[in-house]
């Protein structure tokens, strides 16, 4: 489930992945149009390019290695 970074509230959508294409077909057949609370579930296949776990790990490693930006101290003039 995707949440707003500032408020922490859900944005009303999320993502799921399936390792088996038949599981995707079964989920679409069984869950599409069902309700969670008062919201209908809308399922569709993503068109996102396939990624390898190695690529994801490399991106995560690069993200962690970035140093946080330090704030510059203001100079007060008299």
UniProtKB/TrEMBL annotation:
Biased composition (Basic residues): 60-78
InterPro entries from the UniProt entry: Nucleotide-bd_a/b_plait_sf, RBD_domain_sf, RBM42_RBP45_47-like, RRM_dom
Presence of keyword Cell division: no
GO molecular function: mRNA binding
Location of the RRM domain: 1-48
Disordered: annotated segments: 58-78
Gene3D superfamilies: 3.30.70.330
UniProtKB keywords: RNA-binding
PANTHER family given in the database record: RNA-BINDING PROTEIN 42, TRNA SELENOCYSTEINE 1-ASSOCIATED PROTEIN 1-RELATED-RELATED
Protein name: RRM domain-containing protein
């Amino acid at each position: 489930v995707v949440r707003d970074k500032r408020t922490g509230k859900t944005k009303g959508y999320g993502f799921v992945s399936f390792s088996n294409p038949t599981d995707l077909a079964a989920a679409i057949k069984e869950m599409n149009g069902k309700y969670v609370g008062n919201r209908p579930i809308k399922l569709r296949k993503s068109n996102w390019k396939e990624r390898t776990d190695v690529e994801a790990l490399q991106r995560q490693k690069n993200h962690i290695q970035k140093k946080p930006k330090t704030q510059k101290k203001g100079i007060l003039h008299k």
